[in-house]
């Protein structure tokens, strides 16, 4: 016969915490499992728990459940549950739980202890700073607005973004430049990212900038929104030049005049002093300057405009593009800073080939001869002379202004011409004073 050794009540414990990684705002669940591993019952088993670290960052919202004491029969287990709310993060938490009771055989107290750990995190955060520089700027100059977003939390921040560039207040004082939305898929713990938008100061006054950044916590999936506001920037009055250049005509041939006009407008509130114009020609072989604007510096009050005019003559004979760079330079008396403005106009130079000259019908047996002239421009005067085979002049005709580029002229009374071969010579003076030459044309007269 085998004797069985009777075991008194013996307690064993295990402690689990879920989740083991906790964020501010989450609830920690601690479960103590107590088992009686003996042959005798254990009575008055009572659960206990203690937090060694981070006890000031959580508070108990429920538990223990059940509250105890309870009795555990041989080899029986029971679970006790506590729930804590996490209101501060960034801490490594140590928990100690125990089940205490009494052995029914010996009457001795018995206990089992278990430990567990959890880490408390801060969720993803979003801070935004807006820095506008310089603090003081003159009209026409630029303001740099730098937006910096930062994730101060312990979890990734997803898709931090701004839907629009920083808003200026009041908006009429500045003109925003080209803005490209920053594309950021995530901002890691403690990381930051910046982008800059450039504005042009338009009018005197005080202006501030505000932006709104949104994102999402990668664990809690909670949306985040933060508004950043800059310090105020002072825009002071100053001269600010705007220029426009024109050339007329836009296309010309050799010998024709061209007028270049630079219009300078001071769109600022302050005066511009000692404005002096200049003109640069891309190729001096294509044109010469015959008339200049005054080289004396002028003063341009705020809101005023001035025209600077150059008169040129086209000297190029072949196809080309003439680039004309007109500029004006001066100073702003408020701070003696340099001012300048420039622009470019172009003139297409057309070639001046020999013209085409034809007579029809040829031979002619009627009373009318038509003359065809391909002109390089409107003609001031057209002269046609006819010579017989002995080079005696038998006809001379002169026409006044010919408005058409392709001119058709008529010679009547051809029946009075004796049969034979005649040579026609044309001479054309164009509106610009230049003479266009044509090859000689032979005409046969028959009866």
What does this structure look like?
With about 450 residues, this protein is mostly beta strands. It has four domains: about 10-120, Immunoglobulin-like (Sandwich); about 125-235, Sandwich (Immunoglobulin-like), CATH 2.60.40.10; about 240-350, ntegrin, alpha v. Chain A, domain 4 (Immunoglobulin-like), CATH 2.60.40; about 355-445, Immunoglobulin-like. The protein is built from no helices and 37 strands. The chain has strands at about 10-20, 20-25, 25-35, 40-50, 60-65, 70, 75-85, 90-105, 110-120, 125-135, 135-140, 140-150, 155-160, 165-170, 175, 185, 190-200, 205-215, 225-230, 235, 240-250, 250-255, 255-265, 270-280, 285-290, 300, 305-315, 320-330, 335-350, 355-360, 370-375, 380-385, 395-400, 405-410, 420-430, 435, 440-445. The strands form eight sheets. Strands 11, 13, 14, 16, 18, 19 and 20 form a seven-stranded mixed sheet that branches. Strand 35 (about 420-430) and strand 36 (about 435) form a beta hairpin. The mean pLDDT is about 90.
Find the structural class using helix and strand composition. mainly beta
Estimated share of beta-strand residues: over 45%
CATH structural class of the largest domain: Mainly Beta
How is the CATH topology of the largest domain named?
A: Immunoglobulin-like
Provide the residue-averaged pLDDT. Answer: 89
- Main β-sheet, in a few words? 7 strands, mixed
Low-confidence stretches: none
Number-wise, the strands total 37
Query: Termini, distance in Å?
Result: 163 Å
Shape: elongated
CATH superfamily of the largest domain: Immunoglobulins
Query: Could you estimate the helical fraction of the residues in percent?
Result: under 10%
CATH architecture of the largest domain: Sandwich
DSSP summary: helix tally: 0
Tally of distinct domains: 4
Radius of gyration (Å): 49 Å
